[in-house]
Amino acid sequence: MARHYYIETMGCQMNEYDSDHLGRIFEDSGYLATSEPEEADFVLVNTCSVRAKAEQKALSRLGRLVALKKKNPRLLVAVAGCVAQQRGTDLLARFPSLDLVLGPREIGRFRDILRKIENDGTRLAAVDVHRAPTAFMGRFEYFQNSVKAYLTIMEGCNNFCSYCIVPYVRGRETSRSPHEILEEARNLVLQGVREITLVGQNVNSYVYEKTRFPELLQAMNKIKTLHRMRFTTSHPKDLSEELIQCFAGLEKLCPHIHLPFQAGSNAVLKAMKRGYTREKYMDLIRELREARPGIAVTSDVMVGFPGESEEDFELTLDLIRQIEFDNLFSFKYSDREGTPAARMKGKIPENQKLTRLARLQELQRGITLKKNKELVGKSIKVLVEGTSKKGQQLTGRTDTNKVVNFISDSSNINRLVNVKVKRSLFNSLWGELT
Ligand code: SAM
Ligand code: SF4
Predict the structure, then answer these.
(1) Residues whose CB falls within 8 Å of the CB of residue 351, separated by 6 or more in sequence, listed in order
(2) Which of 103, 185, 248, 373 is 20 to 30 A from 67, comparing alpha carbons?
(3) How remote is the CA of residue 396 from the centroid of ligand 2, in Å?
(4) pLDDT at position 68, please?
(5) 187 lines ligand 2 (CB under 6 A)
C-alpha cells in the first residue's frame, strides 16, 4: 500500500520553497501527498521562529502532531525550519517520540536522512548551519499546475540586525550559481509558470563570482514566455543605483518593491543596527518612484523596540504618512533569545506596544484604502491564479501585487486578463473582465 506524507508550512516564502523541495523528495522516495495528518505515514512541520508567537505556535502544533503517534505508533514525525535549527537536540528530549529535527541548511541531505530513519529507526537532529544551499533537483514536474512560483537564490543573512534571529538559524549568506538559478527558472517556465519571485533573506546582496543581483535580473528578463518577475526581501542599505535602474529598464520586473524600514527614528534604526537613516530610506523611495512611476511600495515595521520613546514612535508614523506605503506588515517587537536586543534595557510594556501597533495599523488602513480607491474605474492587467477563497470568483494579482477578484469561468486561470476595477476594499479589489 502507498505511503503518504503530510507537510505543514509556517512562516516565510523560503519555507514554502523548502517545503516544496521536501515534498518532491518524499515523492521520489515513493510517498504520495495527503492533506490529512491522520492519514499520513510521515508528518513534517516546517517552522518559523522570527517572533516568540510564531515559535510558540510551532511548538504547540508539533505537540499535537507527535500525539498522533498514540493512535498510529508507526507514524514518523519531523520538525524542520528555524525552530528546528534553533532548538536542535533539545526538541528530541522535549518530544520523546519525535523522529527528526531538520535544519534549513540540511534539506539537501534529506533524501539520505529519510532512508536512514525509515530503515533503522534512528532519531536524529541534523542542524549543521554551514552547509551549502540545496541544489536544484532538475525535476521537470516541479511546481506543476501553478502559474507562479518562488525560487530561492540565496540563503542566510550577514546583517545581524540587533533584534533578529535569522542569521543564527539560517547561517551566513551563500548565493546559488546564476547557471543553476536560470536553469531552474527555465524549467519552471516550461511547466507553465509565468511569474517567478526570487527569494532570499536579503536578495539584493546576492553575489556569485562576478554576478551581482542586477545582472541576475537582466539574465532572468531574457527568459522567453516568463511574463513577470519579483523579488523579496531586500535591504535598504544594499539597494544600489543599478538595482533601482532595473525597475526602469527591465520590462518583466514588476513595479513593486517590498523594502522593510522597521522604524522611522534614527536613534531606533541605530540601535537596531540597520545601517541607514530615515533620510536615506526616504531618498531611496523617491529614486524608485522616479525610476518607475507608479511603483507600489510595501514594507515591514516594528513597534516597541527597546528604548522606543513616544517621539521615536511619532517619527515612525510620520514616515508612514510621508511615504504612503501601499501596504505594511507591522509587528510588535518580541525578544529573541541570543540576540543583542533581548539584552537591552528600556523594554516597552506589552500594553504600550499594543496601543502603538493599533495606532499605526489604523493610519496605514486609511492609506491603503485611499490607494485602492484610486484604482476604481481603471482597467488593469491581472495574472489569474485560481478560484477565490469564497469559491465563486477567480482571483489574481496586478503587477503591483494587489489581489483582484472577478467573476469568470475557469478557462481564464493561469492567463493574463484585463479587469476593470469596480470596487475597492482593504485587502482586495473587485472588478469585471473587459
Ligand atoms: N530580511 C528582511 C529585512 O531585512 O527586513 C526581514 C526578514 S524577517 C524574517 C521579517 C520581519 O520580521 C522583519 O522585517 C521584521 O519586521 C520582523 N521581525 C524580525 N525580528 C523580529 C522580532 N524580534 N520581533 C518582532 N518582529 C521581528
Ligand atoms: Fe534579520 Fe536584518 Fe537579516 Fe533581515 S537583514 S534577516 S531583519 S538580520
Answers:
(1) none
(2) 103
(3) 30
(4) 95
(5) no
Q: What letter does residue 233 receive in the DSSP assignment?
A: -
* Predicted local distance difference test score (pLDDT) of residue 91: 95
Take atom 7 of ligand 1 and give the residue whose Cα is closest: 201
Mean pLDDT within 362-370: 97
For 98-120, the pLDDT digits (tens) are: 999 999 999 989 999 999 999 88
Q: What is the pTM of this model?
A: 0.93
Determine contact, residues 122/100, Cβ cutoff 8 Å: no
List the grid coordinates of 104.
Answer: 534549513
Give the β-pairing of 207-208 and 379-387: unpaired
Q: Whose CA is nearest to atom 20 of ligand 1?
A: 164
Selected residue with higher pLDDT from 322 and 409: 322
- Which residues have a Cβ under 8 Å from the Cβ of 388 and sit 6 or more positions away? 394, 395, 405
Helices (DSSP H) in 5-47: which residue ranges?
13-28
258 lines ligand 2 (CB under 6 A): no
What is the atom index within ligand 2 of the atom nearest the CA of 157? 3
Test site for ligand 1: of 160, 168, 232, 300, most ligand atoms within 8 A of the Cβ: 300
Task: Return the ligand 1 atom nearest residue 166 CA.
Answer: 9
For ligand 2, atom 1: residue with the closest CA = 164
Q: Is any ligand 1 atom within 6 A of the Cβ of residue 51?
A: yes
| Closest CA to ligand 1's atom 15 | 300
Q: What is the mean pLDDT of the chain?
A: 93
Full DSSP string of 263-331? -S-HHHHHHHT-S--HHHHHHHHHHHHHHSTT-EEEEEEEE--TT--HHHHHHHHHHHHHH--SEEEEE
Could you give the angle at the alpha carbon of 241 between the alpha carbons of 239 and 244, nearest 5°? 70
Q: What is the distance between the alpha carbons of residues 325 and 410, in angstroms, rounded to a whole number?
A: 33
Q: With a 6 A CB cut-off, is 151 part of the ligand 2 pocket?
A: no
Q: Work out the burial of residue 174: count CB atoms within 10 Å of its CB; fewer than 13 is exposed, 13-18 middle, 19 or more buried.
A: middle
**What does the pLDDT average to over 226-233?**
96
What average pLDDT does range 306-333 have in this prediction?
98
Q: What is the pLDDT of residues 155-199, one digit of tens each?
A: 899 999 999 999 999 999 999 999 999 999 998 998 889 999 999
Ligand 1 atom 25 nearest Cα:
333
pLDDT tens-digit readout, 48-82: 999 999 999 999 999 999 999 999 999 999 999 99
Please report the pLDDT score of residue 250 as a whole number: 98
**Residue 262, ligand 1, Cβ within 6 A:** yes
**Helix %, strand %, coil % for the chain, to 5?**
40, 25, 35
